[in-house]
Design goal:
This protein has 8 helices and 2 strands; from the N terminus they run H-H-H-E-H-H-E-H-H-H. The chain is mainly alpha-helical and about 220 residues long. It has a two-stranded antiparallel sheet. The longest helix is centred in the first third of the chain and has 25 residues.
Length: about 220
């Protein structure tokens, strides 16, 4: 009779469990947000965009604080393609630094300022609604369905889109529109990826059925 060696369970946890560790998650959050502080400083020094710039800087600081104190995830995707998408979408503004042109305003400063202020208000409301359940890579923390999330599934992205519109109106050029448009495209794709990952949770699946709009209330 053939003898088979006993099966020894592996003591190495899967990547999703490792990534969900609180200390590692917050370390990643800190390292991931530091470049945005540099981006805010660079734009302050080299791009005189008035209120659109101030809106971006304040939004960056809100993001930095909420990321550092965020809640540890219950599960994190180990899919390298999802991580790559999150990297491109998140750091696209940094990659844009060498591409953005000074451009020309196409509307009055009052109009672009109003768009920028709306962007900041939406981002602030969305981040406060989300609380400590924030991240760049698709991860399940506590599912939020209140506040801004009662109306759209991705209100932070809505605010970012408005911010890009404000900058395009203040500093228009075909190249600027292209790079800003690509930045929006990455987040459109990321929205769908995040929903596919989170929909494994029955509570989030029910939320998807209840709140149909992804970015604009009652429209799309």
């Amino acid at each position: 009779m053939a003898l088979h060696p006993p099966v020894i369970a592996s003591s190495i946890p899967p990547p999703s469990q490792v990534l969900a560790k609180s200390w590692l998650d917050r370390t990643i959050a800190f390292v991931a947000t530091v470049p945005f502080l540099y981006l805010a400083y660079y734009r302050f020094q080299h791009m005189a965009l008035g209120i659109p710039l101030a809106s971006f800087v304040i939004g960056t600081l809100i993001m930095f604080v909420t990321m550092i104190v965020r809640r540890p995830p219950k599960r994190v995707t180990p899919n390298p393609l999802y991580w790559l998408l999150a990297f491109v979408a998140t750091y696209w503004p940094l990659l844009m630094l060498g591409l953005m042109q000074k451009g020309q305003p196409v509307v009055s400063n009052a109009v672009s300022d109003a768009v920028a202020i709306c962007s900041l208000l939406v981002i602030a409301w969305a981040r406060l609604s989300l609380g400590r359940n924030i991240g760049f890579v698709p991860a399940q923390r506590e599912i939020v369905t209140a506040g801004a999330y009662r109306y759209v599934r991705h209100p932070i992205y809505t605010g970012l889109f408005l911010g890009s519109l404000g900058i395009a109106l203040r500093a228009y050029s075909p190249l600027n529109v292209l790079v800003l448009g690509l930045g929006i495209l990455w987040f459109l794709i990321k929205s769908v990826v995040e929903e596919n990952f989170l929909s494994a949770d029955t509570q989030y699946a029910a939320y998807l059925q209840r709140v149909r709009a992804r970015w604009i209330p009652f429209i799309v």
